[in-house]
């Protein structure tokens, strides 16, 4: 199977599984506990259907939208995900440049393998930084200030990762950061020599945004779960979120909001947007799927704050359904990480092109000339 044989997200997943060692692939692919929420994130889009309009002039379809203060070319962007260098030796360089080429947001994780400054130099496209509240307030402040100096356009605070979820696949495969040989992983690394050689010969693995501030971000062998559990502040509350929003003083989203009460409090602290998310099904298994909760949140606060749907996106029609129910835009994580693992920057560009084509074609077939015409009457429940 080659990159040119990938025509949808599932194809990219199959190729990534073929090219990546098992611990690396399953870190992308897996979820928490029984992975019921992970599965529901995508399945939830099947509860309703699109209702097209006909005999409308769709010779000029405009897929652009404005979210978090930035106009993007189509209503889908790259959600923040950690450690891109694990999936391809070019890391965030590949994903940031692909996002810039397609005129959409690239989101850099605190746990990225390229620094804020490096990403700023790599891409001139719109960039968002994903913040975690650390026990060391100085570290959190440092990250915000560096983003301000580096021209990032938006910030999101992840609020659903006080402790790491129980990701049992990682225990079974012996996943660590940085990757290391274990009895569980030895064979898989051995049968993927291309990945292994590039990893060994490439830049040294590090959590680039925090490696100079804490030993836990250096190249020592520590699992991502151990880092989260040792460094993230379990006392995080609404005062921390309000402080971060005010210190950033720009477009600011809370990522991981699922309840109406929390959405209303996000408005109260001055957030620009909420990202409806369950962290890709990787935290609380049995929690609500973002699409299942979208309409409830739109009805409650959709006229007061931007709503971004994050989770389960595999098709352009999923984006159309979310927009019709009131989302301002969508973001995807696993989908582009499969593509990164499958083929680096060309892989990410290919999955973005496929998704943009599906959105454009879907809008054309729906008889909608711009995203504002995707309204609730375009949805029918089964």
How are the SSEs placed, and which strands pair?
Elements: H1 9-19, H2 22-29, H3 36-43, E1 48-50, E2 65-67, E3 70-72, E4 76-81, H4 92-101, E5 106-109, H5 116-122, E6 127-131, H6 137-149, E7 154-158, H7 168-173, H8 186-190, H9 193-201, H10 224-231, H11 238-248, E8 252-257, H12 260-268, E9 273-276, H13 290-301, E10 306-310, H14 316-324, E11 329-332, H15 334-366, E12 379-381
Describe the structure.
The chain is α/β, with parallel strands linked by helices. It has one domain: Aldolase class I (TIM Barrel). The protein has 15 helices and twelve strands. It has helices spanning 9-19, 22-29, 36-43, 92-101, 116-122, 137-149, 168-173, 186-190, 193-201, 224-231, 238-248, 260-268, 290-301, 316-324, 334-366, and strands at 48-50, 65-67, 70-72, 76-81, 106-109, 127-131, 154-158, 252-257, 273-276, 306-310, 329-332, 379-381. The strands form three sheets. The chain has an eight-stranded parallel barrel, surrounded by eight helices. The chain has a two-stranded antiparallel ribbon with strand order 1-12. Strands 2-3 form a two-stranded antiparallel ribbon. The longest helix has 33 residues, at 334-366.
Helical segment count: 15
Q: Output the CATH homologous superfamily.
A: Aldolase class I
Strand percent estimate: 5-15%
Tell how many strands the DSSP assignment holds. 12
CA(first)-CA(last) distance = 37 Å
What is the class in the CATH system?
A: Alpha Beta
Uncertain segments are 217-221
Q: Give average pLDDT, whole number.
A: 92
- Label the structural class: alpha/beta
Give the overall silhouette.
globular
Q: Give the domain tally.
A: 1
Report the major sheet: 8 strands, parallel, barrel
The CATH architecture classification is Alpha-Beta Barrel
Radius of gyration: 20 Å
Strand ordering within the main sheet = 4-5-6-7-8-9-10-11
Roughly how much helix do the residues carry, as a percent range? 40-55%
H/E series, N to C? HHHEEEEHEHEHEHHHHHEHEHEHEHE
Query: Would you give the CATH topology?
Result: TIM Barrel
């Amino acid at each position: 199977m080659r990159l040119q044989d990938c025509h949808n997200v599932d194809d990219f997943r199959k190729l990534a599984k073929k090219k990546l060692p098992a611990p690396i692939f399953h870190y992308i692919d897996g979820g928490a506990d029984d992975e019921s929420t992970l599965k529901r994130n995508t399945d939830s889009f099947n509860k309703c259907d699109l209702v097209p309009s006909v005999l409308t002039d769709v010779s000029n379809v405009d897929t652009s939208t404005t979210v978090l203060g930035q106009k993007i070319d189509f209503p889908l962007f790259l959600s923040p995900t950690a450690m891109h260098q694990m999936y391809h030796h070019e890391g965030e360089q590949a994903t940031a440049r692909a996002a810039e080429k397609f005129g959409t947001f690239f989101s850099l994780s605190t746990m990225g393998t390229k620094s804020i400054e490096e990403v700023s130099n790599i891409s001139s496209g719109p960039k968002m930084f994903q913040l975690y509240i650390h026990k060391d307030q100085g570290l959190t402040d440092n990250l915000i200030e560096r983003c301000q100096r580096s021209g990032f356009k938006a910030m999101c605070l992840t609020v659903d990762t006080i402790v790491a979820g129980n990701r049992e696949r990682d225990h079974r495969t012996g996943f660590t950061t940085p990757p290391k040989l274990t009895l569980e992983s030895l064979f898989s690394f051995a049968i993927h020599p291309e990945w292994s050689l590039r990893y060994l010969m490439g830049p040294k693995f590090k959590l680039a945004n925090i490696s100079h501030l804490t030993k836990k971000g250096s190249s020592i062998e520590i699992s991502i779960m151990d880092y989260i559990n040792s460094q993230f502040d379990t006392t995080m509350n609404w005062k921390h979120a309000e402080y971060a929003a005010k210190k950033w003083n720009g477009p600011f989203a809370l990522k991981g909001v699922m309840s109406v009460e929390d959405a209303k409090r996000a408005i109260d602290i001055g957030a620009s947007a909420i990202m409806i998310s369950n962290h890709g099904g990787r935290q609380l298994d049995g929690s609500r799927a973002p699409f299942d909760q979208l309409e409830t949140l739109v009805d409650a606060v959709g006229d007061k704050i931007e709503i971004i749907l994050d989770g389960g996106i595999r098709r352009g029609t999923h984006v159309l359904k979310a927009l019709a129910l009131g989302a301002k835009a969508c973001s995807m994580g696993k989908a582009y990480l499969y593509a990164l693992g499958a083929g680096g920057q060309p892989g990410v560009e290919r999955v973005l092109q496929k998704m943009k084509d599906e959105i454009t074609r879907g809008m054309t077939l729906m008889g909608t000339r711009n995203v504002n015409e995707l309204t609730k009457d375009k949805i029918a429940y089964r």
